[in-house]
């Protein structure tokens, strides 16, 4: 029988693996992609939609161009039997595999923020950290705020998807407020001592949105927050604060199916070999993207896409006997501070015996001129077009 690779999760990591594995193996492997949603909405650039700088439709991608070699099934994987090498889908179907690739992204830790649970509170205080209707809900809530109202964002503890994401989000909502609600206030409630690109963000908040944004770190109770969705209140270190809209981004773990498959550890993430992203728990399973516990790479689409190339080569070597070369990885994370003011950070990584280790790192400088910042923003648009074409065809 032909060898069969099943990929669960058609996002930045999984769709890239499915598409490239089918293409690069020239029809020698059967590749099935299991993805819940018929349309994928990118988290990347979704903050620009919140800021009114991008349309919602521009974030949406279907699977029609993924290539003839990939069988796409729109269903949810509910169980993995690793003994029998089979996956069960919610619709009742079961799929046998020779190799299984898991790229299910993230799920939220229940009760991570006291007072908030996904059901039913995501409808009142959205997370908007899986893009789609949640992102639209957050935008409509922010737009409906009274003049001079307060928007709160509860930031997550490390490690989480897209380290600069919450802070870019605040910058983009501030951009929107500057236009439509200039006396509005933004509170960031943060359990962390510091955050990604902090100097770049803080400089921009002073320059563009002076007095609008307050960051409450753990020294001021940022780690002791409770929310009351029904009354739209926060309790910060015992003090009740009424707000007009609130974005709760809870602590995160690997997408649920990774734990159901038994390939996560106590951290909640799936440990993998640095040179191949092969699960340390099961040789027939690969885990990439946000779900993987791999070392120094941030949880980003850019990282997931880079890891996908390594997974494709590792599976081809494994099943087809092609030659394996050294694994190296790259990542760039872009953030928009204000219209035409873009910054980036990133690096190169390589597999060491212990982990995927950072070997080179770069970050935009604090005092770059406007032309360079505009060029960085334009570069990020090019990156988006390129990576979405690489993922979805
Ligand atoms: P995902 O892309 O989330 O894909 C997982 C897929 O698996 C989903 O489509 C889901 O429906 C599916 N799935 C899950 N479980 C199942 C199941 N059981 N059965 C079937 N299907 C399932 N990254 C960048 O590189 N650059 C950025 O500028 C950037 N900006 C961001 C901004 C925000 C606000 C956020 C929230 C994230 C941002 N990211 C950015 C991060 C990026 O979105 C993620 O790191 C990336 O999507 C991770 O890819 P993944 O393949 O691991 O997971």
UniProtKB/TrEMBL annotation:
Presence of the UniProt keyword Coiled coil in the record: no
Keyword terms, alphabetized: FAD, Flavoprotein, Signal
Any Pfam family matching the protein: FCSD_central
Domain Flavocytochrome c sulphide dehydrogenase flavin-binding: 327-392
Coiled-coil regions, chain positions: none
GO function term, MF aspect, one: flavin adenine dinucleotide binding
Residues in Sulfide dehydrogenase [flavocytochrome c] flavoprotein chain central domain copies: 135-250
Keyword Signal: yes
Protein's UniProt name: Flavocytochrome C
Organism of origin: Cereibacter changlensis JA139
């Amino acid at each position: 029988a032909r060898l069969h690779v099943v990929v669960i999760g058609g996002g930045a990591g999984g769709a890239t693996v499915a598409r490239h594995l089918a293409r690069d193996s020239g029809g020698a492997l059967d590749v099935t992609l299991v993805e819940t949603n018929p349309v994928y909405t990118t988290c990347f650039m979704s903050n620009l939609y919140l800021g009114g700088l991008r349309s919602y439709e521009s974030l949406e991608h279907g699977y029609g161009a993924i290539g003839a070699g990939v069988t796409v099934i729109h269903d949810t994987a509910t169980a993995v039997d690793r003994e029998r090498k089979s996956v069960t889908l919610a619709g009742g179907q079961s799929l046998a595999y020779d190799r299984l690739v898991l790229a299910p992204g993230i799920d939220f830790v229940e009760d991570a923020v006291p007072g908030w649970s996904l059901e039913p509170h995501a409808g009142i205080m959205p997370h908007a950290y899986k893009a789609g209707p949640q992102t639209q809900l957050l935008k409509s809530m922010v737009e409906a705020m009274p003049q001079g109202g307060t928007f709160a964002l509860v930031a997550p503890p490390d490690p989480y998807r897209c380290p600069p994401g919450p802070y870019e989000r605040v910058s983009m909502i501030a951009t929107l407020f500057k236009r439509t609600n200039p006396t509005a206030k933004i509170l960031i409630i943060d359990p962390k001592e510091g955050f990604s690109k902090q100097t770049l963000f803080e400089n921009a908040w002073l320059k563009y949105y002076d007095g609008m944004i307050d960051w409450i770190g753990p020294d001021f109770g940022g780690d002791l927050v409770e929310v009351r969705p029904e009354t739209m209140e926060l309790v910060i270190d015992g003090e009740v604060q009424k707000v007009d809209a609130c974005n709760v981004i809870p602590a995160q773990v690997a997408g649920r199916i990774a734990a159901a498959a038994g390939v996560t550890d106590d951290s909640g993430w799936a440990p993998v070999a640095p040179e191949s992203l092969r699960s340390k728990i099961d040789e027939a399973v690969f885990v990439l993207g946000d779900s993987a516990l791999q070392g120094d790479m941030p949880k980003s689409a850019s990282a997931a896409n880079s890891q996908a190339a390594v997974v494709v080569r590792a599976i081809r070597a494994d099943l087809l006997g092609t030659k394996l070369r050294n694994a190296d990885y790259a990542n760039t994370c872009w953030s928009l501070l204000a219209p035409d003011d873009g910054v980036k950070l990133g690096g190169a990584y390589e597999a060491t015996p212990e982990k995927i280790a950072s070997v080179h790192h770069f970050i935009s400088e604090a005092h770059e001129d406007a032309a360079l910042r505009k060029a960085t923003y334009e570069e990020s648009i090019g990156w988006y077009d390129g990576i979405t074409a690489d993922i979805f065809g």
